Every structure is written in C-alpha cells, then in structure tokens.
Amino acid sequence: MILARRLWFAGLLATLVLVSPPAFAQPAHEAKIDRGLRESLRNGAATQSVIITVKAGYRTDIRQSLEQHGDRIKAEHPLIGALAVEIHSEDIAEVANHPWVDAISLDAMVSAGAAATSAKHTTTTVTVLASPLASANSTLRQTLGLPRVAGLLTPAGDGITVAVIDSGIAPLADLRISAFYDFTRGGIPTAPFDDYGHGTHVAGLIASSGLTSNYQFQGVAPRVTLVGFKVLDKNGAGKTSDVIRALEYLTANHARLHVTIVNLSLGHPIYSPAKDDPLVQAVEHASAAGLIVVASAGNYGQNQKTGVSGYTGLTSPGNAPSAMTFGAANTHDTITRDDDSVAEYSSRGPSWYDGFAKPDAIAPGHHLISNIVAGSTLAKIVALNKKAKNGSSFLELSGSSMAAAVGSGVVALVLDTHNRAAYFGQKPLTANAVKAMVEFSAIPVKDADYVTQGAGEINAAGAMALASAIDTSVKTGEWWVRGAAPAHTMIGWQLYGWGQTVIWGHTVFTGDLVFHNLRSWSSSVTWGANIVWGTSVALVKASNIVWGTDAVWGANIVWRDRVIGQHEGDNIVWGTHEGDNIVWGTLDGDNIVWGTMDGDNIVWGTWDGDNIVWGTSDGDNIVWGTSEDGDNIVWGTSKDGDNIVWGTAAVQRGKLF
Hints:
Elements: H1 2-19, H2 35-41, E1 47-54, H3 59-69, E2 72-77, E3 82-88, H4 92-96, E4 101-106, E5 109-112, H5 119-122, E6 127-129, H6 140-143, E7 161-166, E8 177-182, E9 188-189, H7 198-207, E10 225-230, E11 237-239, H8 240-257, E12 259-264, E13 266-269, H9 278-288, E14 292-296, E15 315-316, E16 324-330, E17 341-342, E18 361-364, E19 368-371, H10 377-384, E20 394-397, H11 400-421, H12 431-440, H13 450-453, H14 460-469, E21 488-491, E22 494-497, E23 501-504, E24 507-511, E25 539-544, H15 559-563, E26 586-587, E27 590-591, E28 604-605, E29 611-612, E30 616-617, E31 620-621, E32 633-637, E33 643-646
Parallel strand pairs: 7-10, 7-12, 8-10, 12-14, 14-16, 16-18
Antiparallel strand pairs: 1-3, 1-4, 2-3, 5-11, 5-13, 6-20, 8-9, 13-15, 16-17, 19-20, 21-22, 23-24, 24-25, 26-27, 28-29, 30-31, 32-33
Helix pairs in contact: 7-11, 8-9, 11-14, 12-14
C-alpha cells in the first residue's frame, strides 16, 4: 500500500511539474513542514491532520489530486490559499517537496488560554462566587480610568459589535447577542450556548451590562453587541482549521454583521514563522479587511520546572504582526497603578522564529470576575474542587485570555468615543491607529522590559482622550489633534504620565508621531513593515529593540520545555549585553530559524565568534561575523541596498529595557 501511494504521488509530481512554470520546478526544502507536524509524525500515526498552503492558482489542482489519492479534504480555506486535509503520513515529505506547495502545517489544537494540557496554565485561579455580594466591588473599570459604573452619557460601546471566537456565549441577561455560529459543526447558525464556559466569561468582561450583579461586575464596554463563533468544544479545545473558517466567514461578512472587533482568547504554540503559520495569515487577512483583531499572548511565561518567569513563550496568533496582542497584568486588586506588575504566567516575547516585539501591551487579567454558565465544564470543575457552591453566577479566572477581553472592551470604548466626537468628513479609526493610540497612552509598570509588557499597561481613559481629540479628516502627514495634546491620565486620584512609545517592528519610537496623521496608521500598511515615516515628525528617539541586553541575556528561556518540549541539551542563545543578537540551536538535528524581519535567513553558528554563514535572502548574501573586538555584527542586505545591522558597540538604544 505504501509503495502504491508513493508511485501515485511520483506520477502526480511528474504530471504537475510538466504544467508548472519553470520558476517553480525546484523541490521544496524540508522546512516547509512545521515543527508541530514533525513532532506529530514521530508518533507513527497512519494519517495526519494538516493544513496545506498552496501557491495562488493551484489549490484546485492539488485538492483534486489529493482526493483521487484517497486523502480527505476537511475544509478549503480560500482566504489564505490553503486546504485542511487528513493525509497519509508517509506522503507528507513528498507533498512538501512539490513546487506548488508553500507549507504544510499541523492542524494544531487550539485552546482557551493556549494551555490545552493543563488546567492550571489556563487559569491561575478558578473560583465561583456564591453570590455577587460575596465579593468586594470590582476595581477593574476604575483602574482603567473609567467610572465604576458606566453612565448613560459616557461612552460604553454603543453601536460597536465584537465577535468572540471562543467556546461560545451563553444567552444570559447581562449579554446582548445578535448572532451565533457553531464552527465545531461546520459553522451552522444556531441559538447561543457555551458548554465550556470560557467564552461567556470573556464576553462578560467585554460587554456585561452588570444587571444581574447589581453592577458590581460590569463589563468594560457594557453596551457592546456580541456575535459568537463557537470553535472550542466542551473541554475548551478545538482545531486551528475551525478558527480559520470562523475568521474567513467573519472577514467576508463583517459588514453585514456590523462587526469591527474580533477577540481571540485562544491559541497554540508557535510552530513556524508567521508567514507560514495559517492562523497568523488568517488574522493578517482579517486585519487587511478592516477588522481590529485582539489576541491573547498566552500563559507560558513561567518555566514549568523552575517556576521562574522567562521569555519566548508567546503563542499563535498572538505573533500576528497586525493583531493587538495583550499579556496579563496583576493589579493586586487596587485601583492605582503603583503596585501593578506583569503576571508571572503571562507569555513574554519575542516571538519564536521571527523575533517579533510582542505583546503590544498588557491589560488586567489576574483574578477577574465575570459571568459563568450553570452546568458548563468550568462550573463543574469548580464544584468538584469544592471551591464554592454549585449553581453560582460568577467565576473568577486569571490569564491572558481575560487580558485580551479587557483589551477588546477598551478598543470598543475608543471607537465609540471617536464616533461621538466625529463630525462631517471624519473617517473611521483604522486598526493601526487604534493600536498606536493604545500603545502611546499605556502606562508602563515598574521593572518590566518591552518584550514583557510591550508599551505598558492599557489606559482606557487615555486612549479615549486621544480618540476624542483626533480629527481623521486632515491630510496625511499633518497634525490631527484638536486642542492640547493629552499626555497624562488621572487614575484613583493620582496623575500618571503615559509611556508615549509605539513599538513598530523591532523599533521603539517616542515623540509626537501619534499626534500626526501618518501613512503608518493607514489600513493598507502592515504593522511593523518598512516604511518612510516622513520629515514632518520629529522623533525624540528611535531605537532598535535589542534582545541581547542584560534583561534578556542569560535569562530563562521558557520555549525549550514549555511550548515545544525541546530537550535539555539544546543550545539557545539570545545575544550579549554588547548588542550581539543571535538565536541558534538544534532539535534532533533541526536548525532553528532566525534572520531578517521577513524570516528568510537561516543562520547557524556559535556565540564565541566561530560563525558559519548559511542561506541567502532573495539572492543577497547573508554576511555574519564579528570585528576584532567581537562587537559588530552585520547580516543581510535588501535589494534596495539597505543594510540590516544588528548590534554595534555604538548602537543608540534610547529608552529600552
């Protein structure tokens, strides 16, 4: 049978190559198979659930050939040019070698909080309250700079619809749900429900009216309308392909559903560069269509063995450049920010493979109280653990899932505020503009670097002040703030200065750039892309985020045993305090990929200066080496002649860690 299959695919290759353009007539590298699938192949299963990304124009041909061979096509993903397939394991290498195939990815399990195997990593604390009066008033809204209870005349998300892609949403009195689709059953429209409970908790943090708790546990944007997309089952797990199908449906129908914000409090480990990750690509397409996608960073911030917080635990799709990714802050149940910190479990960046500067910001995510579904799996877990009485209405959870929900609520308030202040000629705020405003107005927490907290802890009142002041009708490049430019926010009778930074790609910008209508904020620009900022903006500082500063060098890297399960002997180095930025290592002989911002370069070597050059990028030689003092490292050039320089002794770091 194996021989027959291989003979079949050899014939397929011969047939397809005959009609392929000569440019595609070279076999694909083994790197087309993502690390998650390689791990799965070691288990020896006869078939694998995969997502095959195909070059434009060839998806139908590949689909027909796979079907003729007996492989089962589970779904077609035109948004990202891919097929979800149950394929024979022994054929994967040959399919990957075909020139029309760009990548083969594991149809990975996604989970609430991106911690599928351990409940304690999904929620640090799980408690059901016997009654809403059993807890002190929530400080969530107040620590965001909002009134404890939203008033009729204050922005509260009116006219804004948020799509929650999760385990579902229960039809509770606190929640306004306009539509519901079950993608665990193919995307059928159905009555709202939530058999796991996570999606309802997330929805409550975003948009609970607070009615059933006497307004003690009101959501961040209590007049938001919700659309539910169920992609997780009663155990809080689902397939990547189902999430992609939900994103595809939403991208095509967001105008009809009136959706502007998408909340993704779920994910899976990063198994490939962002350009090859199907879930990331679905998010990028959704963002390009005008949706504001909010994602959780993951709960992989601690080493499983030592309990020490470390780096590189970010999960997909939190590594999507265009997504607004939130880690979790611990407010210690106070309104003021003086004692706030990054939660130990919150995933830190940079993202694996690409080294993206994530998360974008942090938001309250520790010990947050929201709605619970009677009879749901989470409610039953709590009842079995005897942590509270059964049949209660509210649940206390912790995690970056909760932080993302808070972030989505704040984004809804920003949009509502801008709409209220708009007049003739105003244009809607773009996803890039909203992200820049959220980052710029964030309040940094103490003793945390950029790859731990992003630009800082979210400041709803500050972002809303910007949204109210910005006039989107002005020409590109011009100052677009009406009146005095805001820079401070009063929280709990204390005045806090904003961080006033925007993390764009690998660079931290400070200055007045958010006060200008820049091309960067256009919906046609991918966040982090190489752009010309223009001469009208006088930047105070523009600094590369150097992963190899003292804050990261020698620090605990959680990726090895937390996300992928690498072996103890693997070598992972993030750089030196002189600015030498290096990532390399092995996993059973496999190269760790690192390179320029597009992820094309493959570099292998040792950190003591005995460096080996490997690979090219678009025909350009990759130069890797050191000067006599070991400080200078240069790699890669672009066709435009722009040298990519990493870490000289004289690099101006500006405001870094």
